[in-house]
């Protein structure tokens, strides 16, 4: 109830029993109650006739169709969610290719630029996952404390008929008061698909659908990457929920917290204080996503 419907019993009731069911359900229940109230004095054929009438009424009004909750459960069980397909496509078509090569690219860049990437703990690809699915093509426009630095060495592969397809990542400088952190950062591009679908009438994809699928995308992608040995230690998912009021440097602070966390997570005693607490936290080393229950959905089934 809490993770799926934010603790609202009324929202859960509406999902299980849509509003157009309320009248017919009351009619059927009332008829059944009146028939059973004096059941001993009624003939058997009347009971059978009433039962048949109730069944016909259910079929005529479409009450036999699955509710939103049942539909969602069937989609999750059969892996038919949009988010599930996007997560797997993102992994197979991109992350599985680039992540095993990320540290090599960072090492080559570090040799050419000594002392710029001194902190090896953050030699990873930092993937930004905004739950709003609102993505900036230019990170510098998203936050002035994020400055483009350079491109990492390219990876060239022949893929799906394209000769010498180029894969590359950009290195950014993140300003933390008077200190600069350097790291590879980019958005999870499949979120652009979810955002575009919510803006296209043909997709019939609401804002609520987009949020739910974005959350499910995060959980599915984390599960996939956690099970990939070749991607271990090469990525950091930065899942965040943008604040209601615009904050000039919200994104840079979110990234800085994750950089600080990686820099210190190997030590038992932390020195200093973290930049700030993240809006949503994800631990790639835990069995389950460590995300606030109000931010990411849990599966409907108890066996997941």
Automatic annotation (TrEMBL):
Residues 81-262 form the STING ligand-binding domain. GO terms for biological process: activation of innate immune response; autophagosome assembly; defense response to virus; innate immune response; positive regulation of macroautophagy; positive regulation of type I interferon production; reticulophagy. Keywords: Endoplasmic reticulum, Membrane, Nucleotide-binding, Transmembrane, Transmembrane helix. The keyword Transit peptide does not apply. Residues 3-79 form the STING transmembrane domain. It comes from the Eukaryota. It is a multi-pass membrane protein. It is found in: Cytoplasm, Perinuclear region; Cytoplasmic vesicle, Autophagosome membrane; Endoplasmic reticulum membrane; Endoplasmic reticulum-Golgi intermediate compartment membrane. It catalyses: H(+)(in) = H(+)(out). Its main location: cytoplasm. One of its GO terms (molecular function) is 2',3'-cyclic GMP-AMP binding. InterPro entries: STING (IPR029158), STING_C_chordates (IPR047191), STING_C_sf (IPR038623), STING_LBD (IPR055432), STING_TM (IPR055434). GO terms for cellular component: autophagosome membrane; endoplasmic reticulum membrane; endoplasmic reticulum-Golgi intermediate compartment membrane; Golgi membrane; perinuclear region of cytoplasm. CDD domains: STING_C_metazoan-like (cd22658). The keyword rRNA processing does not apply. Belongs to the STING family. PANTHER family: STIMULATOR OF INTERFERON GENES PROTEIN. This is Stimulator of interferon genes protein. It comes from Eurypyga helias.
């Amino acid at each position: 109830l809490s993770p799926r419907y934010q603790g609202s019993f009324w929202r859960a009731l509406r999902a299980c029993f849509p509003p157009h069911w309320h009248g017919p359900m009351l009619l059927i229940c009332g008829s059944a109650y009146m028939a059973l109230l004096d059941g001993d004095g009624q003939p058997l054929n009347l009971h059978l006739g009433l039962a048949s009438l109730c069944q016909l009424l259910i079929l005529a009004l479409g009450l036999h169709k699955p509710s939103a909750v049942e539909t969602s459960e069937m989609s999750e069980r059969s892996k038919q969610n949009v988010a599930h397909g996007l997560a797997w496509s993102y992994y197979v078509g991109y992350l599985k290719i680039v992540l095993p090569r990320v540290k090599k690219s960072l090492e080559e860049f570090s040799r050419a630029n000594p002392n710029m990437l001194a902190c090896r703990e953050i030699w990873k690809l930092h993937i930004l996952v905004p739950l709003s699915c609102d993505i900036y093509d230019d990170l510098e426009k998203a936050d002035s404390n994020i400055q483009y630095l350079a491109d990492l060495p390219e990876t060239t592969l022949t893929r799906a008929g394209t000769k010498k397809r180029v894969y590359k990542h950009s290195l950014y400088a993140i300003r933390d008061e008077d200190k600069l952190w350097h790291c590879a950062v980019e958005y999870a591009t499949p979120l652009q698909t979810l955002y575009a679908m919510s803006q296209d009438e043909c997709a019939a994809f609401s804002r609520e659908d987009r949020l739910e699928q974005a959350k499910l995308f995060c959980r599915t992608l984390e599960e996939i990457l956690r099970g990939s040995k070749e991607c271990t230690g090469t990525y950091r998912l930065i899942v965040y929920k943008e604040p209601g009021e615009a904050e000039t440097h919200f994104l840079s602070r979110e990234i800085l917290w994750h950089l600080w966390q990686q820099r210190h997570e190997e030590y038992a005693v932390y020195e200093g204080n973290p930049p700030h607490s993240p809006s949503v936290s994800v631990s790639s080393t835990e069995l389950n996503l460590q995300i606030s229950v109000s931010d990411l959905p849990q599966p409907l089934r108890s066996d997941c």
